[in-house]
Amino acid sequence: MANEQTLERIEAKTYRVQGLTCANCAAKFERNVKALPGVKEAKVNFGAAKLTVWGEATVEELEQAGAFERLKIREARERTIQREPFWKKKENQNVLVSAVLLLIGIVADAADSAGMAVAMYLAAIALGGYSLFWTGLRNLARWQLDMNTLMTIAILGAAAIGEWQEGAVVVILFAISEALERYSMDRARRSIASLLEMAPAQATIRRGAEEVTVPVEDVRLGEVMIVKPGAKIPLDGVVVNGASTVNEAAMTGESMPAEKTVGDAVFAGTLNGEGFLEVQVTKRADETMLAKMIDLVEEAQAERAPSQAFIDRFARYYTPFIMIVALLIAVIPPLVVGGNWLDWVYRGLAVLVIGCPCALVISTPVAIVTALGHAARRGVLIKGGRYLEQIGRLRAVAFDKTGTLTEGKPSVTDVVVYDGRRERLLAVAAAIEKRSQHPLASAIVRLVEEDREPFFDVPVDEFQSLTGQGVRAVVGNETYYIGRPSLLAEVLGRLPDEAEQRIATFRQEGKTVMAIGTARRLLGLIAAADRPRPSAAATVAALRRLGVKEIAMVTGDHKQTAQAIGRQAGVSAICAGLLPEQKLAAIRELKQRYGITAMVGDGVNDAPALAAADIGVAMGGAGTDAALETADVVLMADDLRQLPYTVRLGRRTLAIIKQNIAFALGLKALALIAAIPGWLTLWLAVFADMGATLLVTFNSMRLLRVKEEGDGQ
């Protein structure tokens, strides 16, 4: 590749490619684009059907570079491309006419009109296979051995030995096979195409006193969008007026709509509910979370999985091997045992046809493309086939605690009242803590708000923060203290024995205790804890059912809290009080003992551990930038239930890749065996090759059925 520093100074342009059906064609197209005069570098992403060009080239020049496959090029920002009906496509019309000519030839053959029959077969071969011949002969001249080369030799060989009907049938079946392959790859790419079309192409913007509708590319940062009920949100932004529910399933996979009000973030491509929203734009069209998702998935599709890299290397040796085997079958029996030349040449040609590596080459990428696209639609971003395969082999998982196994914010768990009514105690506590910034203070306020208890009318004076201890304030004519139990013990002289016992019990359970009282008496105790996510225990259980051998929690929190959360979540090992370097050591130990290990964290302060693990999984929080950058896998909805789904998808993908390879090689092996006694005809060889390709493709489509537990699978 050209010098990376040089390329950084050259503007890169991205295009969508229509008609890209095989990895070999993609590689050839890339070479042709690189050869254009104004192009410094080019990269073709076969899975995403995308071309990136560094340098200057017109669309016409790019299409000329792809003329061997009649590729169509369009700007990446164009949302859709006009699709021709099946019967209008020239290549399909040629196949139909060729089929008619073949039928006429068969009828002429039956009527003993040999000349007419040969003319019809020749016309069918020429019309249906001219592009194949052109490509195959050019590749043969350059000694580029691909399926076009093999098919060209086989068809010309059939014609040379007088098998005109067989040659015509081979041409037509091969053309049908290519059409079906194009359809299959298009279907596999549809998940990305649907992502591209999720966000509206236009936005309604308030400019001055007017509301104008403009393309999203023309919207400036800071402008205010108008989003009407039932409309999709065009760009990322922050709500500045109005309230509504927004269906974010397209981004996160979460089916329940999210409440949105002033100050809340919204994302392009999500669906507004029944409310009217005014949204201040915070991201350009090419910087939205949706755009980042699409880029990540397309980059992931471009990255070769280990299985795919192996198959690509295998195919480089496999194709010449098939040609040598076909030559030996055609030549050795006539020379050694006096076999009939025409008979054995025919068998050699059949071996060439069945030897086409097409089904083998696409056995891995079609499965990877399907799986990555399906995962993205469900709110899981996987950054490459390599990570998808590793997830499929996962043996151990390490969870961070705060914000991963837990909700990431403290909640009140217990309220013990020693004097007065619970409602009055909490109202006074909330009125005082409303003025504090401490997370535990927020937990008390949230509890009272959820209980709909009035506390705003409680008069609070002389509020004072006592550093490291708590707060003091005057309510009515009484001075109240809220904070550590030691603060109340100091004010009162000592706490009652029963209260000390309660405090010790709460601490053993991993809870933080606050005491509330006056200068004369202890009024009560409030215990709070960072609660486990409701889905934590179910997630751990699901991972065990999937065969994950070790599930650990690694946290910097103290041992008592970690043990309490670990017991509730059901993890098998708890490593608490860890510094960042100790977390790294824990991950390395898991890798050494169990093999492929995943680390699940929040994507920010767990970055070293995420990097040390074989697979770093980040809780995405609707796609925080830090999570997208640091992790190999991002759970966009912050939903742990997506993790077992991802492991299940990885396991299923690995199984399907193995099945695909077995199908591709197994069918070819059977056909090769059948070729020796002469049972394999040329047209049957093409049919078997086409069947293997379709079998591989449709088997990969089964990945679209992988779901979360409870989704009906």
Automatic annotation (TrEMBL):
PANTHER family linked to this entry: CADMIUM/ZINC-TRANSPORTING ATPASE HMA2-RELATED (PTHR48085), CADMIUM_ZINC-TRANSPORTING ATPASE HMA4-RELATED (PTHR48085:SF5)
Name this polypeptide is given: Cd(2+)-exporting ATPase
Localisation per UniProt entry: Cell membrane
Top class in the EC scheme: translocase
Gene3D superfamilies (UniProt xref): 3.30.70.100, Calcium-transporting ATPase, cytoplasmic domain N, Calcium-transporting ATPase, cytoplasmic transduction domain A, HAD superfamily/HAD-like
Membrane association type: Multi-pass membrane protein
Catalytic activity annotation: Cd(2+)(in) + ATP + H2O = Cd(2+)(out) + ADP + phosphate + H(+)
Coiled coil: none
EC number: 7.2.2.21
HMA domain span: 11-74
Major site of localization recorded for this protein: membrane
